[in-house]
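Before going further, learn to read the protein records used in this course. Taken together, the C-alpha cells spell out the fold as the letters spell out the chain. A record is reproduced here so that you can trace the correspondence yourselves:

***
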Amino acid sequence: MEELKKCPFCGGDVKAVTYDDDGFLRVLDSDDIEEDTAPCFIHCYNCDMEYFPCDDRCADVISAWNKRAGD
C-alpha cells in the first residue's frame, strides 16, 4: 500500500476511511485497500478535513491524495 502524505492544510496525520453499515467511520487497513472492499475517502484526524474524490477505488483515492503541486 502506498503511504499517505500528511494533510497539506495542517500537517496532521490522515487515514483512508469508510463508513461501516451502521454509519460509523472505520479506518481501512492495507488488506481492505488492496482488495477495494469499500468506497473510501481520506480523513485528517487533526483538522477534520475530508477528501472525497470522484473515484471510489481506494488505491486511486490514495494516489490522487498524494499528488502535490510541483510533483
